[in-house]
Amino acid sequence: xxxxxxxxYTGATLPDGGYATAVVRAAFAAESRTVDIRFYPWARALxxxxxxxxxxVFPEYYDPQQRPALLLSDxxxxxxxxxxxxxxxxxxxxxxPGAGPADGFSQLAGLKIGLVRGYxxxxxxxAEPGLRRDYARDDLQNLSKxxxxxxDLIFIDIKVADALIRQHFPDQQQRFEALQPPLxxxxxxxxxxxxxxxxxxxxxxxxxxxxxxxxxxxxxxxRQAHGL
Length: 228
What we know:
By secondary structure, this protein is an alpha/beta fold. Helices cover 31% and strands 18% of the residues. The protein has seven helices and ten strands. The chain has helices at 19-29, 42-50, 123-127, 139-147, 158-168, 199-215, 218-225; strands at residues 2-3, 38-39, 56-60, 70-72, 81-86, 112-116, 132-136, 153-157, 176-178, 189-193. Strands 7-6-8-5-9 form a five-stranded mixed sheet. Strand 1 (2-3), helix 1 (19-29) and strand 2 form a beta-alpha-beta unit. Helix 1 (19-29) packs across helix 6 (199-215) and helix 1 runs antiparallel to helix 7 (218-225). The radius of gyration is 18 Å and the shape is globular. The chain starts with a strand and ends with a helix.
């Protein structure tokens, strides 16, 4: 399988490889299967799986229409995702009463929004007319561009933002501010390559193992152990 550096969910130097890595290993281990997991930039990790050079990629958001080359597993819990700005900027998503935060997207027209190349984002972030989209190789580059004023906002998992800011910008944590409420509370998935010769077996094995570790409490233990 392929994955990316995406703390606290995945990371080569994180305990157990991060929360999502630990979940994937535990689910397969529950079915007496082992996995070889390698870390790449996301666009590369995704390409390797879509082409069948790796059996799958994780963690992925759920949008099968945008990932036709991949089979998506049953879900496991992730964290909230939303927009982050610099705290001195007067930017908000003031949606009408009773509406969701995404209904304020029209107020972002003309602003430059940092996204990561190859990521699935909020559907309206990818489709809303009038938004200026600027793509980076990863979330860390997007945070750097935000600090430098090269983008006005970035879309990011809030737990990932917290981890990266603590690690790379510890003296500037107060400069970052997440717009409230988050835009999404997405679930995470293993995405299995349709090009894998045993794709259906891999997917079924993972789903069965995930069900086992959910029912026996191992999944919840892993969430707590990794601060989620």
